[in-house]
Amino acid sequence: SGSLQGILVTLQGLGLDPVAWLLRPPGGQFPFPTGTLGQPGFVAGLLLPLVPLALVRARGGQVWGWLALFALALGLGATINRTAFLALLLGLPLWALLRRDVRLLLLGAFVIGIVFAWGTFGPKTQKYTRSYGETNTLQTRLLIWGLALETLKDPKTLLIGGGPDGFRHALITRIPIEKQLPFYKAEYRWEGQITKVEPLFNEKDPLRARTYLIHETTKTGQALHLLRHPLDKAHNAYLDKVLAYGLPMALVWFFLFIGPTLTLLPQGNALGVGLLLILIYYLTWFPAPPFEPWHLALALAGWKLPRFSPKPPPQAPTSPRV
Q: Can you tell me the distance from the alpha carbon of 101 to that of 95, in angstroms, rounded to the nearest whole number?
């Protein structure tokens, strides 16, 4: 499944979308490679933990392992997901170091090179202009995390959360729009000065329907922007889990991943490396339905490996037959 998604997003990046007729959105093609998941970041989250598993097979000389590795690397390059690339950059060399395996180090460098080269120099016929050198995403993430921490000052939110849509509800009802403007300026690249924020709703209107008219003064004159509240995730899985379900449940979720990671990673186990890549990826992404069940399945598989299984009771020695 991961290899097929990798092949699909690679073809989509080339403008050769074999499923466009089936998944075509209103108005034409998707503006960027999405596989069948709807978002490049979701595809990266699906493919990322599979890289160590395919790399082990490729190192063992299995042809299908090499094919899967190429498909995953090209797919990750097509998504140009900076967090996934950083996870590979940190996780694969650490894996080789733990195993003291020079060949594994070279293979990891090969994979990282393919991801970077295809994401940077690969042909792109669709309107997908991201690059690994952009810093705007980090800037917006830091601003989002500041807003998330602001909402967690409420003891009730910290303890039991606000539900799956709790962050957006808190932004609409408790965080003044003026405190949110730095994020929206960075996200939408408004270069001018905000001179006025005009509410376009009544207090009795539904919360999700609240809209503001933003007045911006630019070098060329006045600009007007309609602003709703599209921000609904903190884009950090650990913060998002606390915001949705509270700190105790977020710790349970975190332990589900960190437990097998801490045990399998020192062994140089490929699954442990895959879980480490997930934990790094979640630093700037939120768990989403297209890939979170797969991540949970990998974590549960980690718990089921022999290191976590109870040892069988010793058997009494049997006397040899005469």
A: 9
